[in-house]
Design a protein that fits this description.
Elements (H helix, E strand, L loop, with lengths): L1 H12 L12 H4 L11 H26 L3 E8 L5 H8 L8 E5 L5 H4 L5 H4 L8 E5 L8 H4 L2 H4 L12 H18 L2 E9 L2 H13 L9 H5 L4 H15 L6 E5 L3 H19 L8 H16 L9 H8 L8
Parallel strand pairs: 1-3, 1-4, 2-3, 4-5
Helix pairs in contact: 1-13, 3-13, 4-13
The structure holds adenosine monophosphate and magnesium ion.
Length: about 325
């Protein structure tokens, strides 16, 4: 059953994975309106999302119990791409103790006083945890590239600011992610790929509905002037930084329901590849547990069963199921 579900998820996300070393032209290669032909929103949508969320919850519990691997999910998108909603829906079933979301905004004075990866390194997940970067170190080759005045604010020495700065950042990011991966932290990256027309529609919705007004600023609309520059920066970023150890997935984002299914599927698939297992206690520890069990059973009051849990579960025929 789990294998079949895993296979279905793998099939769904395969076309979204950016092949390491491939040359990407985002506008040409990835359609923001794509949805898998075999899926129907009303019929399959809720079921598949539920499956993805259930798998995530199950695997996250194991990841936490095993406490050996961590997962970093990087979410990138232009404004109104659906990052917040994706996190809300996809993570709705997991134990909040095991997930940490970090939002990255315009860097503070303190952050600008450090190397460009510093603020991201401080938010990395611990072993057993899933860290979600809502915007990530990739802003350093996106907004910073499209608006080079951001680079000026970074106080870099002259020799670190030359023309090759972007190629160098790609290499440094790849190296950093490889280091994380080698040390047990799996990195997976999602670009929510939105069309310009769908962004216009979502901006208008944010203006039309008073309860959405807070989500909109006129600066968001002005940023549309640089749409093509962003598409180019995305294409180069995808070409240079999708690696075997930290792949990019381009998620078609014009249909929110489909984007959420894909995001859940990618994260679930990443966890399945790690395949974390509940720790099994040693024979000696098991014997110690049984000694304590006997002592606790001896403490039973007169009318109580020796082991109320075992007694209750024996009655319902569920004994041993939660062992
Ligand atoms: P939001 O996520 O909509 O709250 O906006 C956060 C803003 O911070 C976006 O406009 C990003 O482009 C901007 N931002 C994020 N990271 C950086 C960075 N490293 N340098 C400059 N601006 C950034
Ligand atoms: Mg914004």
């Amino acid at each position: 059953m789990a294998d079949k579900r895993a296979q279905r998820l793998a099939e769904l996300i395969k076309p979204l994975r950016v092949k390491p070393g491939s040359e990407v032209n985002l506008a040409k290669d990835y359609d923001p309106g794509y949805k898998a032909d075999f899926l129907n929103k009303k019929k399959d949508g809720p079921d598949l999302l539920r499956t993805g969320i259930a798998l995530l919850a199950d695997y996250q519990a194991r990841l936490a119990a095993q406490d050996t691997y961590g997962v970093l999910v990087c979410l990138q998108a232009l404004d109104a791409g659906g990052k917040d909603g994706t996190i809300r829906h996809v993570m709705s079933g997991v134990n909040p103790q095991g997930v940490h979301v970090s939002n990255f905004k315009v860097p503070s004075a303190e952050e600008l006083d450090h190397d460009f990866l510093w603020r991201y390194a401080r938010r990395l997940p611990a072993r057993g945890d899933i860290g979600i970067f809502n915007r990530s170190h990739y802003e350093e080759v996106l907004v910073v590239r499209v608006h080079p005045e951001n680079l000026d604010r970074q106080k870099l020495p002259k020799e670190a600011k030359g023309k090759d700065v972007w190629a160098r950042r790609y290499r440094e990011i790849n190296d950093w992610e490889r280091y994380l991966s080698d040390n047990g932290f799996k990195v997976v990256k999602l670009l929510l790929n939105l069309s310009k027309e769908e962004q216009r529609t979502r901006f208008l919705k944010r203006i039309d509905l008073p309860e959405k007004n807070w989500k909109f600023s006129s600066a968001d609309a002005r940023e549309r002037q640089w749409w093509d520059d962003y598409q180019r920066a995305f294409s180069e970023m995808l070409s240079a930084t999708s690696t075997d150890w930290a792949p990019w997935y381009v998620i078609p984002a014009d249909r929110k329901w489909f984007a959420r299914i894909c995001a859940a599927a990618v994260i679930a698939h990443t966890l399945m590849e790690i395949d974390p297992k509940y720790p099994v206690v040693s024979e000696q520890a098991r014997q110690e547990l049984l000694t304590v069990k006997a002592e606790l059973e001896d403490e039973a009051p007169k009318d109580a069963p020796a082991d109320p849990y075992a007694a209750a579960h024996a009655k319902t025929g569920k004994a041993g199921m939660e062992a």
